[in-house]
From TrEMBL:
Its EC number is 2.7.1.24. It is found in: Cytoplasm. Its main location: cytoplasm. This is Dephospho-CoA kinase. The gene is coaE. The lineage of its organism: Bacteria, Pseudomonadati, Pseudomonadota, Alphaproteobacteria, Rhodobacterales. Belongs to the CoaE family.
Length: 202
């Protein structure tokens, strides 16, 4: 049975991944957002709330998991992080399977996964697109948003695979210079993938 072409989308923080994912969605491509999935799991009624409350009661704010409190609880504690991952990862994978089942007739789907290479999720993709930008552009974007300090940015960056390594492993690259340029690059990539799909099923 034919299934959709799975395009993994990733990129370091501040590289324009969320914008690129939105442009795929605007082009009519189903997009699964790993971050949004985790947020939903932590909200009131989410499947992760009860097990996280049992494991980390100090991370709760009422009937939901408070991500800031959770980060403080697991900070520097590898055992706690492993415990959290054992709760959350299966739920995320289940959500991804449900997404793929719901879009099994699509030609292409995008799996937007920030830590795609770090978690080995590229094995479930037919190809990977890495979005990138110059380091000074990346830093400026993040700090201009005013949502984190330079120290917090550096800490997040240190946890992620270096951009150069991601680019070296990518099947496709888009440098996010401007919105119009990125939109054109997304359209061009969809055209190229569509041609490849057509050739493989000819």
């Amino acid at each position: 049975m034919k299934r959709p072409f799975r395009l993994g989308l990733t990129g370091s923080i501040g590289m324009g991944k969320s914008t690129t994912a939105r442009l795929f969605a605007e082009a009519g491509i189903p997009v699964w957002d790993a971050d949004a999935t985790v947020h939903a799991l932590y909200e009131q009624g989410g499947a992760a709330v009860a097990p996280v409350a049992t494991a980390f009661p100090d991370a709760m704010a009422g009937e939901r998991v408070d991500r800031t409190l959770l980060k403080a609880v697991i900070a520097g504690n590898k055992e706690a992080l492993s415990r959290l991952e054992s709760i959350v990862h299966p739920l995320v994978q289940e959500a991804r399977r449900a997404f793929l089942a719901a879009h099994e007739t699509a030609k292409i789907v995008v799996l937007d996964i920030p830590l795609l290479y770090e978690t080995g999720a590229e094995k479930d993709c037919d190809a990977v697109l890495v979005v990138t930008a110059a380091p000074q552009v990346q830093r400026a974007r993040l700090l201009e948003r005013g949502q984190m300090s330079a120290a917090e940015f550096d800490l997040i960056l240190a946890r992620q695979m270096p951009d150069a390594e991601k680019r070296a492993r990518a099947d496709y690259l888009i440098e996010t210079l401007s919105l119009d340029q990125t939109r054109a690059a997304v359209r061009d990539l969809l055209r190229r993938i569509g041609q490849n799909i057509g050739a493989n099923h000819a």
